[in-house]
Design brief:
The complex is a heterodimer of chains A (about 40) and B (about 525).
Chain A: H1 3-39
Chain B: H1 3-39, H2 46-52, H3 59-70, H4 73-76, H5 78-86, H6 91-119, H7 124-131, H8 135-145, H9 148-167, H10 171-217, H11 225-231, H12 253-264, H13 270-273, H14 285-298, H15 303-311, H16 322-330, H17 333-374, H18 382-406, H19 414-438, H20 444-466, H21 480-500, H22 507-514, H23 518-521
Helix pairs in contact in B: 1-2, 1-10, 1-17, 2-10, 2-18, 3-10, 3-14, 3-17, 5-15, 6-12, 6-14, 6-19, 7-8, 8-17, 9-10, 9-17, 9-18, 9-19, 10-15, 10-17, 10-18, 12-21, 15-16, 17-18, 19-20, 19-21, 20-21
The chains are: A mainly alpha (about 40), B mainly alpha (about 525).
Chain lengths: ~40, ~525
């Protein structure tokens, strides 16, 4: 693979990570915080 | 008069026209910022508006401003210059550093906003002081943040240089012109002016980046697209060459990995961390993350311009000038002149964030939140807020003037001083900020210990060798990114390790820090809009 291909794959993986974070992990963090608040 | 001289004259003419329009735009936004600061909404004081623009911006404007602040003059000058020198492998710096920074941003943005709003934190040192219930951490962090002056100085040097290249204005006049512009709109509009202008400048920078990307992929000025660009380079610069054992930054894959690690901690820089306070609500944080994460990855594609310039065989003595030279030689004068203003935007949009962050070291961190309580006063009284606002504006003026005077003769060791600030802050703040954001048991003692140990490690690896005190270990002695990466890892590990063996903060304080946001306890589901 050449440098541009490595960078394209890295960037694509990064964008997948951003989307996963925004849609899934933030959901999970907020849900956890909500449950902690309700049980407090 | 030769054809080149005629073209150069046209660039200068168009450059002046764009500069006048740019200055009018920036001053207009500065006035808008001033009205917002003086208007001070019910929930906040004018000082808080000046320092943070708390809750004042939607996700898109803030995302553009954040990306523009990250992309300093280096993105438009040094990184393409590096690509001109080393070829495609410079892309490992150009595109890996934003992944670190924006990845780090995902980790800390929402909680920084939540905690900052609860405690009224007005800066990253203030946030750390509030999070760890520690005036000592606030003061130490504030003093370390003062190193950012070197970062600001480097931006003013770059601005002076751009005035010289695009407008034929002498460097010594250019730095004062840039300083005066910063001084006027920042002392008036504070963080509001900073973010408003940065959002517009971010949009300008995107336009120029798109142009560069098109030029590269079409192989502008060459026959055969980007394949021809690659073929025209020396073999060591072509896209099959990934590392170079003789280059300390690209010596091996692990030095590139450390470059990534170092920039995760970059999110802790005071001029970036304070941006999170400005978003209207955490309801908009996900959109901010997405927009900033995408825009921030686009701007460093400017490195492709450096590769194209090398492929075209452009000969210049200073590689940092490759992008302006590429435009002057390939495009109509009007476009080349617009590029000059775009680069100036990149420089100014980073400098203003740095200056606001520095002003809050004096106004908020040292005066309002440290000196006033030490003397038994109330840091939230109207009188203290008014005085802090006055100090904010006065210190903004002083910081700009000092920074400009300091670079009238550009310091020989400016890059070293610059990385004293950046690397030192990342090493010192990185662990306490990133670990303390997620882990309740992070203790005050651990934060203080990690700051001391990690800064000492960074000093030993990079600063002491650069200062000529010791020879040091290659490549850390000449590669600030690798040394900062180690400093950041030490900071995180030390924060975790020290927290396991020291007393955690009181439960009541932790409840205040980590307690659920009220929006999440509403009966209605959070629709994130």
């Amino acid at each position: 693979m050449n440098v541009l291909q490595v960078l394209a794959i890295t960037t694509a993986l990064y964008l997948v990570f951003v989307i996963l974070w925004v849609t899934k992990i933030e959901d999970w963090l907020e849900q956890r915080e909500r449950e902690q608040g309700e049980s407090a | 008069m030769t054809e080149a001289e005629i073209a150069r004259g046209a660039v200068v003419t168009w450059g002046w026209i764009f500069l006048v329009a740019y200055v009018i735009l920036i001053l207009g936004l500065g006035y808008l910022g001033y009205r917002r600061v003086e208007g001070g909404r019910a929930a906040t004081s004018s000082q808080d508006e000046y320092a943070t623009a708390r809750g004042g911006f939607g996700f898109l404007a803030l995302a553009l401003a954040y990306a523009a602040t990250v992309a300093s003059g280096a993105t438009f000058m040094s990184i393409p210059g590096m690509a001109y020198d080393v070829g495609f492998k410079a892309g490992y710096y150009a595109l890996i550093y934003p992944i670190g920074i924006f990845g780090g941003m995902l980790l800390v943005a929402r909680i920084t906003k939540k905690v900052g709003d609860r405690f009224g934190s007005q800066s990253v040192p203030d946030y750390l002081g509030d999070r760890f219930q520690s005036p000592a951490i606030r003061v130490i962090s504030a003093f370390i943040a003062l190193f950012l002056i070197f970062y600001a100085m480097a931006q003013i040097v770059a601005a002076g240089w751009m005035f010289d290249v695009i407008l034929n204005v002498d460097y010594s006049i250019g730095i004062w012109a840039a300083g005066l512009l910063l001084l006027v709109y920042l002392s008036a509009g504070g963080s509001h002016a900073d973010i408003l202008t940065d959002a517009i400048q971010g949009a300008i920078m995107i336009a120029i980046t798109i142009l560069i990307v098109i030029m590269f992929f079409t192989g502008w000025g060459m026959d055969g697209g980007m394949g021809a660009v690659n073929a025209a380079l020396d073999s060591g610069m072509q896209w099959d060459s990934h590392t170079n054992p003789e280059n300390p930054i690209f010596a091996a894959w692990w030095t590139i990995a450390l470059l990534f690690v170092a920039h995760i901690g970059f999110t802790a820089q005071p001029h970036l961390g304070n941006k999170f306070f400005a978003i209207k609500s955490n309801r908009y944080m996900r959109r901010f993350m997405l927009a900033a994460g995408i825009v921030g990855m686009a701007l460093p594609l400017m490195f492709l311009g450096g590769v194209l310039g090398a492929a075209q065989g452009i000969e210049i003595t200073d590689p940092d000038a490759i992008i302006p030279t590429l435009f002057v030689q390939n495009l109509p004068p009007i476009v080349a002149a617009f590029l000059g203003i775009a680069i100036l935007s990149a420089i100014i949009s980073t400098a203003d964030g740095l200056i606001i962050a520095l002003s809050q070291v004096f106004a908020n961190d040292l005066y309002r939140k440290s000196y006033v309580p030490y003397k038994g006063g109330d840091p939230d009284s109207d009188e203290v807020h008014q005085r802090a606002l006055l100090i904010s504006r006065a210190s903004t003026v002083v910081i700009v003037v000092v920074a400009v005077i300091a670079v009238m003769t550009p310091p020989q060791y400016l890059v070293i001083l610059l990385w004293t600030g950046i690397g030192g802050i990342i090493s010192a703040y990185g662990g306490p900020y990133m670990v303390g954001t997620f882990w309740k048991k992070t203790s005050k003692t651990a934060a203080l210990g990690a700051m001391a140990v990690a800064f000492a490690v960074y000093f030993y690896l990079h600063l002491a060798p650069q200062a000529g005190l010791i020879e040091g270990i290659w490549p850390y002695n000449v590669n600030p990114f690798a040394a900062t990466g180690i400093g950041f890892v030490v900071s995180v590990v030390a924060t975790l390790g020290f927290s396991l063996v020291t007393e955690p903060l009181p439960d009541e304080h932790l409840e205040e820090v980590f307690g659920t946001e009220s929006r999440l306890l509403d009966d209605a589901p959070d629709t994130d809009d």
